[in-house]
Amino acid sequence: MKINKFYDIHFHAMDLSHANITAFADRFINNPLVIKKFLKEKLPAWKKVLGSICVLIVGPFIPYSSIAKRITNFINQQRNIRNLLSFMETSVLYDFLIVEYFLKNDHENKKAIINKDNTLKIGNKFYDKIVLCPLVMDFGYPNIKNNDIFYNIPPQKPITSQIQDLFKAIRTYYTKRIEIKTKNSITKFKIKEKQFNKDADFFEIYPFMGINTKNYDFDEIEKMLNKYFSDFLESDTPEQRYKKLYKAMGEFDGNLENTEKCKNIFAGIKLYPPLGFDPWPDNQKERRKVELLYQTCIDKNIPIITHCSTGGFVASIEHKKFTNPNEQWAKVLKDQRFTKLKINFAHFGEDNIDWTNRIIDLALNNKHNIYADFSSNADNADYYAKLKNQIGNDNEEINNKILYGSDFMINLLKVESLNEYMGYFINTDYLTGEQKHKYINTNPERFLFE
How far is Cα 320 from Cα 27, in angstroms, rounded to an integer? Predict the structure, then answer.
């Protein structure tokens, strides 16, 4: 009997050591309009995060009690932000163990999402596994100019460090277990050894490799793609592609010098225009790099996930041009070589109806191979009514291109837990049982493996 799996195609596993806060702050500090809005307290979530991080760092050094009190009040008001920071303060090493623990155990007055028999019930279907796709973010941003400060070097955030930490976390999930106990209002958790048996664990984990072609020269990109995807073939059947990824899952210990062990550890490529990735550069030297990337994805059937909302971790002043599916991405898909690139436009063009409509048009066009996930959008029960109006219940073509995504842990800016986010999906009546199964199972399996 086939095992039903619940796929979360858009997930993050990282901690505060991985994010490039300086690049984020640079755009914020040097933009008078942003500062004006901040002072008026029109605070989008990303600015609240930055503000909270700043006051957490600076606050203890302010001697004036009245100012310190205001800072304390500000932090206390931002419950969601403190929740996110609490999770990100913990080493990424334990991310998967913590998430699984809270999915499987009652917490305060909240019921567990996973049943005692290790199944997840949605409608009349049971799911025996959750598949997570953590997206590595290429936080390198060499264009930053900090000429007014002493240590004016670009922040060094080598993506190799994030890759190593992520795969150590995956290895930890399959070789350790977690115990969380509260005594006298103090919560502690312990990590204990367990036998390596990934067949028995509830999560399967298939990361996407983040890359910003601007951060590397042509030869480096070619080497990276060969290192991680050399075993991928265009002729792979879904079963063959799945077996390659499953066999490598949990085996890699983060040693990037072991080239043989690096094969098949990534399921696809993650692109992030807000950090400066240009899908179709005018500069021919830069163009050659993205052409290499896209041609490799075509030749080896590698899926791409690209950020597509007006917000996010914004560092580049051209982020909307790079992100807009009507601009640079339209030029990519117009090129006959790349018409069939398999792309998931993540967040479904959140907050911009023109972007959303464009994604729907692309997904309905058989010349292309376009998907969309609604990660971070479904943070309340009403979202699915909006989604229903956008795509309808009976439009089979578009329903075959929608993917479930949570955007955990970033979605903690809007919800208190992955449990809450999943709960909205599980309990909504706006989607049929068939739609739900397509979004969490049929469609992501096609996106990842076919």
Answer: 14
At 375, list the tokens: 């990660």
Residue type, 23: A
The reported pLDDT for the residue numbered 67 is: 55
- CA distances to 107, 257, 328 from 377, rounded to whole Å, are 24, 39, 24
* pTM reported for the whole predicted model: 0.87
Mean pLDDT of the chain: 86
| Sign of the C-alpha dihedral computed for residues 291, 295, 296 and 298 taken in this order | positive
Calpha distance 394→210 (Å, rounded): 35
Cα–Cα distance measured from residue 11 to residue 350, given in angstroms and rounded to the nearest whole number: 17
The CA-based angle 324-329-335, given to 5 degrees, is: 160
Q: Please choose, from the candidates 402, 19, 45, the residue with its C-alpha nearest in 3D space to the C-alpha of residue 210.
A: 19
Complete DSSP assignment for 344-371 = EEEEEEET-HHHHHHHHHHHH-TTSEEE
DSSP string, 53-86: HHHHHHGGG---HHHHHHHHHHHHH-HHHHHHHH
Query: Nearest-5° angle of CA 35, CA 39, CA 42?
Result: 95
The position carrying tokens 């909205």 is 424
Amino acid sitting at position 206: Y
> What is the C-alpha to C-alpha distance for residues 434 and 399, in angstroms, rounded to an integer?
10
In 10 A of CB 399, how many CB atoms? 20
Structure-token pair, residue 141: 């941003």
Residue type, position 34, single letter: V
265 in Cβ contact with 228 (< 8 Å): yes
Tokens encoding 210 = 């983040």
What one-character DSSP code corresponds to residue 202?
S
Which domains, and CATH codes, for the chain?
A: 5-13+90-449 (3.20.20.140), 23-85 (no CATH)
Measured distance CA(434)–CA(422) in Å, rounded: 17
pLDDT, tens only, 27-80: 544 554 544 554 454 455 555 555 655 555 545 444 545 555 555 555 555 678
